[in-house]
Amino acid sequence: MAADIWTALFIGLLAAFVGYEVISRVPVLLHTPLMSGSNFIHGIVLVGAIIALGFATTPLEQAIGLVAVIMGAMNVTGGYVVTERILAMFDRSKKGRGGTP
Amino acid sequence: MIAWQEPLVDGVYVLAILVFILGLRAMSSPATARRGILQAGVAMLIAILVTFVEPGLSNFALIALGIGIGGLAGWYWARVVQMTAMPQMVAVFNGMGGGAAGAIAAVELLGNLGDRSISGLALAGGVIGAVSIAGSVIAFLKLQGWLRSKPIVFPGQQPVNMAVLAIGLGFGVYALASLEALWLLPFFVLMLLFGLLLALPIGGADMPVIISLFNALTGIAVALDGFALVSGPLGDAGYAMVIAGTLVGAAGSLLTLLMARAMNRSIGSVLFGAFGATEESGVAIQGAMKPIDVDDAASLLAYAGTVVIAPGYGMAVAQAQQKVKELTDLLEAKGVSVKFAIHPVAGRMPGHMNVLLAEAGISYDKLFDRDEINPEFPATDVVLVIGANDVVNPAARRAGSPLQGMPILDVDGAHQVIVIKRGQGKGFAGVENDLFYKENTRMLYGDAQQVVGKLVQSLKKLE
After folding, report:
1. Is residue B440 part of a domain?
2. Surface of A (33-72) touching B: CB under 8 A
3. Which end of chain A, C or N, has fewer beta carbons within 10 A?
4. Which residues is B445 bridged to in the sheet?
5. Are residues B246 and B360 part of one domain?
6. Based on the domain organization, do B310 and B415 belong to the same domain?
7. How far is A99 from chain B (nearest CA, A)?
8. DSSP per-residue codes, A9-44
9. Cα B75 to Cα B246: distance, rounded to the nearest angstrom
10. Do A26 and B231 touch (CB under 8 A)?
11. Residues B448 and B305 in one domain
């Protein structure tokens, strides 16, 4: 059991470096979509919420688990739609530039 | 776990994580950013669906109900919201993630109170998740204008906050020691209260940094929940949460530092400095604000060789982007070179102004950031400041000003400055703006959309 947690710690350490490396190359222009995009990625919390609710036994656990799933689902869908909307604008402006001399 | 399910689920999670990383990477360039989020979206969807294959799950109806409610609410709200309200939407959805992390921690604590390694990690996840949702709610209320954006301070604030944190943690530790779940209730209540108290004294100008900070915190809370889950029955989902959560935690922390640096603020002073609560005293500004009428302003612009537009949040609030685009097209038709000076924290988030201008169809090769455009101001004929205040305040160069040291756009170096402004009030930071009193500055009062609209009319008449 404890071994799993140590393995997870090693993986987490590596992920921290990846996160640092990936973002250090992002231009200011994309900071807002990036914040929104990373907000979407921690929406993976929904998977944890599904498991928490899926193994809940008492009514109290079920109630809290349901709250977790609702919030997690909001995080993941809202985070995705907001990011997509922001990035869609950059796409349109790119086409616009192609059209003007 | 049944033989065929384990490799399927694990494989999908590994693939999803890989796509998340590649997706974040793709977002580092405007050309590939959209593809990045699409890929990450598909990966997320598959990762969520494959979770249902995991054996031993029950409460499927409740799960479906929760996803239905949360998914529809999130989707609808994110669809209908105005682009100007994007920062508070990120705050809301981030808060939801923090809340979910806190609630998962609560379920884990209720089910595994006796297992010290799990309950300890879940407790930590609970602290950060609760602080993140409560703080995000305050950030939302302040940005939405439902709560005054100035710092809310009271005497003894820091000791009170620390006491709330310490007592709350005490309840949590006691719950673990005594194995009595009832003590978790005051623990979570006090942690939520601490999150509220933490965000209250933070001024509106610092909000982008705080949203980014809470975003990173939510990532860490998700990772901590993941740690608590890895030794449970479905450990593979825990690993996915550890990686994705830590990825966001690290990326978000760095982004927070970058933003704070752009404003010349340290994280400590953002959290505890109550920026803007103190008034600068003893500095009397010389001169008076000099108004200009629309026609004069229009001819100044029309006969200039180079114009730089410095937009701020006021332009966004007034929805003036479209009019600004028209103005730009008209000026360019007259042979005027038009550039946009984008301060890193113009608007309410880094890059926010770029998004709003892009929405109006202004191509991003006309947008220049502070370091690129600042050397050009002395050679610029007219600078048009639209609804920006603190980011063009030369007081930032003066010792003793609350803005001291904040990097600004040096618009006061241009030959002529025209400021479009709603009234004579101060900016978000609550500091008087020296620029408005300068000899070469003219004030054009009114709602940004109406004023720019009138400028467009006036320019058309000049033809």
Report:
1. yes
2. 33-58, 60-62, 64-72
3. C
4. B421
5. no
6. yes
7. 11
8. HHHHHHHHHHHHHHHTT--GGGHHHHHHHHHHHGGG
9. 25
10. no
11. yes
Final residue of a domain: which of B80, B96, B112?
A: B80
Residue B349's domain is classified under what CATH number?
3.40.50.1220
Can you read off the two tokens belonging to residue B9? 């689920």
Q: Which residues of B are catalytic?
A: 390
Within-domain flag for B286? no
Q: Does B320 share its domain with B390?
A: yes
- pLDDT per residue of chain B (463 residues) written in tens, 0 to 9: 456 777 888 889 999 999 998 888 888 777 788 888 999 999 999 999 999 888 888 899 999 999 999 999 999 999 998 877 888 899 999 999 999 999 999 999 998 888 888 899 999 999 999 999 999 999 999 888 888 777 788 888 888 999 999 999 999 999 999 988 899 999 999 999 999 999 888 876 678 788 889 999 999 999 999 999 988 777 788 899 999 999 999 988 988 888 777 766 777 777 776 554 444 444 556 677 888 888 989 989 999 999 999 998 888 878 888 899 999 999 999 999 999 998 877 776 667 788 888 878 888 788 888 888 999 999 999 999 998 888 888 888 877 777 777 788 999 889 999 999 887 766 666 677 888 888 889 999 988 899 999 999 998 888 6
Q: Which residue of A has its CA nearest to B29?
A: A26
Q: Give the range of the structural domain holding residue B392, as residue numbers without chain letter.
A: 294-461
Are B445 and B431 within one domain? yes
Q: Are residues B370 and B436 in the same domain?
A: yes
* Amino acid at site A100: T
* pTM for the structure as a whole: 0.80
| Contact status, residue B246 vs residue B223, Cβ threshold 8 Å | yes
> Rounded distance, CA B459 to CA B463, Å?
7
Of B29, B117, B361, Cβ closest to residue A1: B117
Q: What is the ipTM of this complex?
A: 0.88
**Nearest CA-CA distance, residue B219 and chain A, Å:** 6
- B185 contact partners, CB below 8 Å, separation of at least 6: none
The residue to which tokens 């639209």 are assigned: B386
